[in-house]
Amino acid sequence: GEIFFPYAGVIKAEGMTVSELRNSVTEKLRVNFNNPQVDVSISQFNSRRNIYILGEISRPKTIKVGLVPITLAEAISESDGLSQVTSNAERIFVIRKNKESEGGVVYYANLENASEFLVAGSFLLSSGDIIFVGASDITKWNRFVTQLFPFASFLNQIDNIQN
User: Is the pTM of this model over 0.70?
Assistant: First the structure.
């Protein structure tokens, strides 16, 4: 949010680009110096600037956001793509918290067709976004059956013994 620079004082850096901050520091230093030359660079980003990718993805992970924006397609690619076995490419959601209120916005993406990746390739993600990849119908059914019949293999073995 703020930085302190000798002979320039406290400078608000939040929301400024690198060149805007450089110009601001230079202007404040002109009061005490002739023709000051300043270089500004970012050495570390806020560690909370992350994007989270969850659900039926090959490798769920947290992706750090840097200077270069990341798109939905890049985030999916960085997580090794959708799970070939359990994912439903028609059920991809980007959940974004609204910074002004308690609510949020949910964006829906259907990546069933390869042409839809053009849209995903231009949809820029923001810090704090959560990407959720939904499960396919057969995956949901399999999980339901597994929970409903925890002893299915045991019952199957008993049936085999009787036969």
Answer: no
